Amino acid sequence: MELRRVEDYDAMSLLAARIVFDRIVNSERLVLGLATGSTPEAMYDHLAEMLNRDKVDLSHVYTVNLDEYVGLSEGHPQSYHHYMETMFFSKVDIPADHTFLPDGKAPDLEVEVERYELLIEELGGVDLQILGIGRNGHIGFNEPGTSFDSRTHVVNLAESTVKDNARFFDTVDEVPRQALTMGLHTIMNAKSILLLVSGDEKEEALECMIDCEVSEELPATILQTHPDVTIIADDEALE
Ligand code: F6R
């Protein structure tokens, strides 16, 4: 595991964007695993700016997102489809049929999670996975207690995650209680992982991710066993 300490959120975002940009321009074909949430927002801004400045062709890039809420349509302002469209896809010239997220409105969620897992496999697996971390140590929406063998699956969100994510909704009651997420096994299959951590509210989760014994009660600890993880963390997250 490589830990890169940076001063603040913007330095974290800029460094992450540079790393992803370099991978894009130096690869003949690239499957990017993408995350949503507050953490990667500015990374997407910087990355879009860099790609547009250099008029980078993205026809060799494919993206698969970690997760999506159950029950929200693609156009719902809090869906991760909508987040990706507004934060990144609409700003860059990536073919629409190269971007994938799980479908939280699929009529049969069990069929959908199998379809998504197979899709990742058919794309050849994720080359570079971007991750954030939840205060309770979740990655993707893999809450404490999730099996390390898990593939893409349906999850019931932890009460703390529902509360944390309520800031994006008008009321806490509007936050979906379920999501579809890549599993921990799916995430660990990525060839490289880039974990972004910013802010003092993530300090405990980060410390444990690095130092605690690997345990399903602390999902992010599994990253200790991955051969190629880079953590970019800011001063507040490391104090
Ligand atoms: C998002 C995701 C989550 C977030 C985590 C941190 O696609 O899978 O694991 O990365 O909940 O969220 P923020 O960045 O909003 O603190």
H/E element order:
EHEHEEHEHEEHEHEHEH
DSSP strand tally: 10
Radius of gyration: 17 Å
Structural category: alpha/beta
Across the major sheet, the strand order is 1-10-9-6-2-3-5
Oligomer kind = single chain
* Cofactors, ions, other ligands: fructose -6-phosphate
Question: How many angstroms separate the termini?
Answer: 19 Å
Helix share bin:
25-40%
Task: Identify the notable features of this structure and list them briefly.
239 residues, alpha/beta, Rossmann fold, 7-stranded parallel β-sheet, 3-stranded antiparallel β-sheet, 8 helices, globular, binds fructose -6-phosphate
Please describe what this structure looks like.
- The protein is globular and about 45 Å long.
- α1 crosses α2.
- The chain has eight helices and ten strands.
- β9 (192-197), α7 (203-211) and β10 (229-234) form a beta-alpha-beta unit.
- By secondary structure, it is of the alpha/beta class.
- The mean pLDDT is 97.
- The chain has helices at residues 9-25, 41-53, 80-87, 109-122, 159-165, 184-188, 203-211, 235-238; strands at residues 2-6, 30-34, 61-65, 67-69, 99-100, 128-131, 153-156, 178-181, 192-197, 229-234.
- The strands form two sheets. The chain has a seven-stranded parallel beta sheet. The chain has a three-stranded antiparallel beta sheet with strand order 4-8-7, covered by helices on one side.
- Bound molecules: fructose -6-phosphate.
- Fructose -6-phosphate (F6R) is lined by residues 35-39, 66-67, 132-134, 138-141.
- Its EC number is 3.5.99.6.
- InterPro entries: Glc/Gal-6P_isomerase, Glucosamine6P_isomerase, Glucosamine6P_isomerase_CS, NagB/RpiA_transferase-like.
- One of its GO terms (cellular component) is cytoplasm.
- Belongs to the glucosamine/galactosamine-6-phosphate isomerase family. NagB subfamily.
